[in-house]
Design brief:
about 230 residues, about 30% helix, 6 helices, alpha/beta, disordered C terminus, Nucleotidyltransferase, domain 5, 5-stranded mixed beta sheet
Length: about 230
């Protein structure tokens, strides 16, 4: 099964094409704020070199958040359009779950943290066994609340939130991992693993998981549903 995956949830845009458990190609860049233009260019770059049409994918994957409000809309909208055009299924893989899956199956508990701005982090807690099952609901919290969120200090903590607030980690008793990652390929591998294990695509809806509401306001002062307040 060929999978085309994109991640626009954070500062880096990444694209990957997998054929089963083999990564055919992967590319990433830091585009600034013009994610839509750069995502299209990156897709074209990768697919041209693979001599592959977008419609040749059997499954489309987008990293679905939390993350940049604008970025999530760009990535999900692009993947939704590709899937509709080809008549093939598309799924959304949560950002923190893709981060946990990117480490493989190291055992123990994994605590991916994303810098959420405003002095907060998006925090997740996942099993490090095969399948990276969530142990808690993803949340947006202050770094000082990490010890309570983790409850037991045996977790491995990593990600941009951990890099931004390393001083908060010792109080949790957790281990701090230093790693850099792009998420398109891990999200694709995770989707293939779950679907191969019998999980239906409907378990992974292609909808944004904002976790925190946006600061954006509609006419009249109301906030749109969802959003993380970042662009």
């Amino acid at each position: 099964m060929k999978v085309l995956a994109v991640d626009t949830s954070g500062p880096a845009v990444s694209v990957a094409v997998l054929d089963g458990d083999r990564t055919l190609a992967e590319a990433a860049l830091l585009p600034g704020r013009s994610r839509s233009e750069h995502l299209v260019g990156l897709l074209d770059f990768l697919l041209t070199r693979l001599e592959m049409a977008p419609s040749e994918a059997d499954l489309y994957v987008a990293v679905s958040g939390p993350g940049s409000f604008t970025g999530l809309r760009v990535g999900i909208g692009t993947v939704r359009g590709l899937a509709l055009a080809s008549g093939r299924p598309a799924v959304g893989i949560p950002t923190l779950q893709a981060m946990a899956a990117s480490l493989g199956n190291p055992g123990g508990r994994l605590a991916p943290l994303l810098d959420a701005g405003r002095g907060e982090v998006y925090a997740g807690l996942y099993s490090g066994e095969r399948g990276t099952a969530p142990l808690r609901l993803d949340a947006v919290i202050r770094p000082a609340a990490l010890a309570s969120f983790l409850a037991d200090g045996d977790a491995a903590v990593f990600g941009s939130g951990a890099d931004r607030y390393p001083e908060a980690i010792p109080a949790t008793g957790a281990r701090l991992l230093s790693c850099r990652m792009t998420l398109a390929a891990p999200a694709a591998r995770f989707a293939l693993e779950r679907i191969g294990a019998g999980s239906p695509v409907t378990d992974w809806p292609l909808t944004a998981r904002y976790v925190r509401r946006s600061d954006a306001r509609l006419p009249g002062g109301s906030a749109p549903a969802g959003g993380d307040g970042s662009s």
